[in-house]
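stuck on this chain:
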Amino acid sequence: MCFGTTTLNVDATITWVVLIYSWSSSDSIAVVAFTKQATYSVIATDNWGCISSDTFDVTYSPAADFGMDSILVCEGASKSILSNVDGTIGASFTWSGYSGDSTNQDPGATVSDFELPSKRAYVKVTVDHKGCISQDSILMKILGRPVVTITDTVNGLLFKVTSNTSAGSTHSWDFGDGDSSNFRLPKHIYKTDGIYTVTYTNSNQCRSTSESFEVTVITLNILENTSGATLTLYPNPNNGLFNLDFKGLSANDISVSIMDINGRTVYNEAYGILNGNSNKAVNLVDVATGFYTISVEVDGETYQEKFIVK
């Protein structure tokens, strides 16, 4: 029976003789329709009492079936595919869709990426078993080495990946200070100033690609003017408690204001005259986590920078 056939009619009739039929299927007529694979037998008794019998197997010719719609082939490698038909039943297999086309008794084929006509190509097998023909196709997709394509930014002690179009499915980050991440777009806050080597590994089902680069992070300097005066905010990021460290200033009017991401003022302080070095503590413990903008006005000139409360 060809796969998919619903019935097979078996005729045990002997011409010109009146017979009594006894089938193993419990049927008692000359022609019986079978629907299942099994071994069957029939005993026939004619009108003179003579008995004859026969036994036979009903089997299916199996259909070609890869069991999946598509499969990946790593670039520069080969992939074995199997038609799921027993190679010992005497069927012939015709393979097509790649440069290794052939007809043989092999139920499987090994296809190399260079044998495919494109990066996405269908390979087909045609199975012929005792005149029963069946076919199946599978889409073979060549998967190349992943490429690292990212952009990043540094703000104070914060390293942030702003875009990542690397095609791999697995992402691994080593930030160079003992910390790591598996996110596609990680954010990392360093504890101290320094130059760190960041290594990013992008992997797919076949291979991985790594790229290393240096990141320089420093405590946030808000003011750095030509006279050598500096204003440093530390630590950054912080929990809402931080310091403003003024060095080398000579100013008659200094004021500080801090705004949240929506432009609302959450802190405002007038320090007046500052000369030399001075340190001011700021307490923002009641504000929400997020980015804030500090604005420092020194004798009419304004300096701004962002910092993070976490």
About this structure: The chain has four domains: 8-58, 70-143, 150-217, 220-309. Residues 220-309 form a domain with the Immunoglobulin-like fold (CATH 2.60.40.2550). The longest strand covers residues 241-259.
